[in-house]
Design brief:
The chain has 174 residues and is mainly β. The protein has strands spanning 11-16, 22-28, 34-41, 48-56, 84-92, 97-103, 110-117, 122-129, 132-134, 143-145, 154-161, 168-169.
Length: 174
């Protein structure tokens, strides 16, 4: 079963056995907006599913649950900078969460796409951010400063090595 409604917007992941047969469906999120925007398989054996999107919390809200395990929900302690932050999640093909990381600023950060490049085991994320955003999921600071007004979206491309756990940032911003 899938808990379809956790908040204003939730993330739903569905695995199909064929065009018409659902193998499983899982949802995750919080009581705020949590939206998935990019998905890819890494082509390894077994495959890993990479998912990016954004999440949101308000003061006093519980942590966001990215586990997709039906019961009991377990909150994932992500660093939350504020506004909408970007997440990168890695799941096994049975929807078991193996890694979750957060990136962002105190304002609205949104990924727009995710691409896996197997030749150098890189995961690329494109999107927009405002103000000063930290793009290093490892806890060290790797800030990118926005140009112009703090309320104007700035574009970014970030790259991470997905062969390691945790994800390792590659020195590529734009």
């Amino acid at each position: 079963g899938v808990n379809i409604f956790l908040g204003y917007g939730d993330i739903i992941l569905v695995r199909m056995n064929s065009i018409t047969a659902v193998a499983w469906a899982r949802s995750c999120g919080s009581n705020q907006d949590d939206i998935g925007v990019g998905l890819s398989l890494d082509g390894t054996t077994p495959d890993h599913i990479y998912l990016t999107g954004y999440f949101e919390r308000q003061a006093g809200d519980p942590q966001v649950d990215f586990d997709m395990v039906p019961t009991p929900p377990v909150a994932d302690a992500l660093n939350y900078a504020g506004g909408r932050d970007i997440f990168i999640a890695r799941y096994r093909t049975d929807a078991t969460l193996t890694e979750i990381d957060a990136l962002g600023s105190i304002d609205m950060d949104r990924p727009r796409g995710l691409y896996l490049y197997p030749a150098n085991q890189s995961l690329y994320i494109t999107g927009t951010f405002r103000q000063t955003a930290d793009f290093d999921p490892e806890g060290t600071i790797s800030n990118l400063n926005a140009f112009g007004s703090p309320w104007v979206d700035n574009a970014f491309v970030s790259s991470y090595n997905y062969s390691s756990a945790p994800l390792r940032i590659n020195p590529f911003f734009g």
